[in-house]
Specification:
By secondary structure, this protein is of the alpha/beta class. Helices cover about 35% and strands about 15% of the residues. The chain has helices at about 45-50, 55-70, 85-105, 135-145, 160-170, 210-230, 255-275, 290-305, 320-330, and strands spanning about 5-10, 35-40, 70-75, 80, 110-115, 150-155, 175-180, 200-205, 235-240, 280. The protein binds zinc ion.
Amino acid sequence: MNTVYTFVPSPNHVYPDHPERPGRFDVLTPRLKVFDAGLIEAKPATREEIAYIHHPKLISGVEKVCKEQAPAIIDYAPTYVTQSSFEDALLAAGGVLTCTRAVLSGEAKNAFALVRPPGHHAEPERAMGFCIFNNVAIAARDALANGMERVAIIDYDAHHGNGTQAAFLGEERVAFLSAHQWGIYPGAGWIEDAPQAKKRIVNVPLPAYAGDQVYEQVAEKIFVPFIASFKPQMILVSVGFDAHWSDPITLLGLSSAGYLMLAKKVMALAEEYCEGKIVFVLEGGYDPMNVANGVAATFAAATGKGQAEANDPSPNKEPDCEARIAEIRQWNGF
Ligand SMILES: [Zn+2]
């Protein structure tokens, strides 16, 4: 079995001077053919599938704004829409569904949904943070509808996955872990965000410049007990390449080798608990070079072939996060 991917670049979802732009894929696109992974065609999600997570009023509201007012700003982040954005967002969500179903059916061993607009900030009743519909959350619900009893989502985009957390606060069949820079957009994601769901909703707020060494400790001391206690049958990964040290809008410290390490760690957990069933879902990442190198590193882990091509270690000193990691373990009872 092979690794497959969907590619939804949404060239008409674009706004002047906005970092979430089609150009994010400029370095990646010509490299796609060198990865040992097969392209599968993304089918657009239906309104009913979007409604697994989102209120019908949000869905019809986004459609109406796109048709009648676009281009428009629909949230302070700012989140924008153009005339094509409703269809683009349906195809992005559908690209994740297509990957998830390919893995569930056994057609593929694992998958990577390379889609935009991203999704993890979108809450059930509102689009926010450059995100229109919550692609990964919709796919998790779809996996439950297709027979999975427990699905875990690990989010290592630089920002807190507030939308995914909101979607599953009361859903015992989905576990969510977000590791992110503390103190930046959207301002949520502190350790104690979800006291009613300790162990199942896990937040890992990190200080600026946390990089490869800190994330390796986070993977070993938090990802491992999180997955071991929940025992999911499938893992979805919200991967954002904005935790790279040279991302223009955040201040973390991962390198491309760090992204390879993280992808290998979550792959190993999927092998141990989920018969290898894992789908990577692109979220943010605003330097096109980092997106291309991060995708390459993730494909290297997913296919078991190749390695991180870029040698781009962070020039910044990492903070000591031992006490923070211990605090998170203690709060969650790991
Ligand atoms: Zn982000």
